Amino acid sequence: MTDAQVHEFRLPDLGEGLTEAELVSWSVAVGEGVALNQVIAEVETAKALVELPSPYAGTVLALLAEPGEVVAVGAPLIRIGGAGTPGPTEPEQAEPEHGSVLVGYGPSAAPESRRASRRPDAKPSARRLARELGVDLDAVPGTGAGGAVTVGDVRAGTAPSARETRTPIRGVRKQTAAAVTRSAFTAPHVTEFVTVDVTASMDLLARLHAVPEFAELGRSPLPLVAKVVLVALRAHPSLNSSWDEDRQEIVTKHYVNLGIATATDRGLLVPTVKDAHLMSLVELTRAIDEVTEAARSGRATPADLSGGTVTITNVGMFGVDAGTPILTPGEAAIVCLGAVARRPWVVDEEIAVRWVSTLGLSFDHRLVDGDQASRFLADVASTLTDPLTLLARA
Questions:
Q1: Cβ pair 385, 204 in contact under 8 A
Q2: How far apart are CA 321 and CA 392, in angstroms?
Q3: How far apart are CA 343 and CA 197, in angstroms?
Q4: Residue 98 pLDDT greater than 70, yes or no
Q5: Which strands make up the sheet holding 49-53, listed edge to edge?
Q6: Distances (CA, A) of 315 to 220, 298, 340, 382
Q7: Dist CA 194 CA 171 (whole Å)
Q8: Helix residue spans in the chain (DSSP H)
Q9: Which residues neighbour 390 within 8 Å (Cβ) at sequence distance 6 or greater?
Q10: What is the rounded distance in angstroms from the CA atom of residue 392 to the CA atom of residue 394?
């Protein structure tokens, strides 16, 4: 075999300034044939799970990294022989087993052993937990659909005597830690709160769900709050700006890429709805559903998880009343939606039971003065109290 027949595939630049990725699993084994653009591996960057297609067709000669290994961009991953290149030979067996023998591969049991080396069927969350706990998925019996290994199966395979677990800091957790540390120690954070009667908004949502365009959509108040935030930003552009330290400039954005803080099995991700300011409420609702589902399922690309200009986080979905969120690096504001609950409220000097929620706003005090933040938050609150005013401002 000549060197020209052997191709070495290196970890490509996955964009967004990423310098490394963790190899999650191989989809091929040594000796197997590979087609052009066939998925050969899955890697996890600090922002997304990414499937790597093969740029070559041929036979797998060597796998140059192990699952769980962190590989630098440009480092070799796999060697593939060109079309017609024989696969690697295995040591000759002293006492070959009964059965037909394929030349260069040993007894017929060899292909089965290669198939067994491929990754077991497991949910992404189960694979991630197995890596964190050091559990061998091959040794875990699956109880999920089709024998898939579930999170529960992985936990059941963990030694009960362990008193502590040490988890390597990598992937999304590493990226999140770096981002919040950089934000917390760079941007002077201030957080304000306002408690709001959102009964009229909840009534509006109930009526909207009777409209065919909304029939298949969820009942979360998040999209309506997002729409109100987008409208309020028009009057308060400082909250949609960024600080350019190198040029000593404040950059005011004339577009809004809305980040949606999303809890996933891999950790906190912030997918963005690009040009959200141009969307109707129906379009915005669908876009939020799409980007958050892509993030949770691991389908979000690095581009989907970057480029935000302002963020919303919904701690209310966990039953939490309020929070003091840390800014996404490079952004001036993050809005926090608390739980919407039935509470006593004074209406026309009488006590009534109303839908009430607490809104929080964290902002970068370099970019936003206290009065600007307060007026923005008050605008959002007043619109949620009387959502019909949204028609006049939208």
A1: no
A2: 30
A3: 9
A4: no
A5: 49-53, 39-44, 20-26, 70-72
A6: 12, 21, 10, 21
A7: 35
A8: 109-116, 124-133, 151-156, 171-184, 199-208, 222-235, 281-297, 370-385, 389-393
A9: 227, 228, 231, 383
A10: 6
pLDDT digits (tens, 9 = 90+) for 24-52: 889 999 999 999 999 999 888 877 778 89
Q: Which residue in the list 7, 189, 209, 365 is annotated as catalytic?
A: 365
Distance of CA 65 to the CA centre of its chain: 24
Q: What mean pLDDT comes out for the span 119-126?
A: 68
What's the pTM value of the predicted model, to 2 decimals? Answer: 0.70
Measured between alpha carbons, how far is 171 from 158 in angstroms, rounded to an integer? 22
pLDDT number for residue 163: 66
What is the C-alpha to C-alpha distance for residues 132 and 68, in angstroms, rounded to an integer? 10
What are the pLDDT digits (tens) for 280-308?
A: 999 999 999 999 999 998 888 888 999 99
| Encoded tokens for 237 | 């552009």
- Residues 358 and 193: beta-carbon distance below 8 Å: yes
Q: How far is CA 259 from CA 85, 108, 269, 305, 318, in A?
A: 49, 54, 9, 8, 19
Cα–Cα distance list, 363 to 115, 243, 367 (Å): 53, 12, 8
Place 394 in a pLDDT band, splitting at 50, 70 and 90.
Answer: low
3-class DSSP state for residue 174? helix
**Domains recognised in the chain with CATH numbers:** 3-133 (2.40.50.100), 176-393 (3.30.559.10)
Lowest mean pLDDT of 24-28, 71-75, 157-161, 358-362, name the range. Answer: 157-161
Examine the pLDDT at 156 and tell me if it is beyond 80. no
H or E element: which one contains 161? none
Residue 127, pLDDT above cutoff 70: yes
The two most distant CA atoms of the chain are separated, in Å, by 94
Q: Which amino acid is at 151?
A: V
Measured CA distances, 235 to 238, 277, 372 (Å): 9, 13, 10
Annotate 79-130 with DSSP letters as a single string.
EEEPTTPPPPP-PPPSSPPSS-EETTTEETHHHHHHHHTSPP-B-HHHHHHH
The verdict on whether 365 is a catalytic residue reads yes
23, 51, 78 from 11: Cα distances, Å:
10, 11, 9
Selected residue with higher pLDDT from 68 and 88: 68
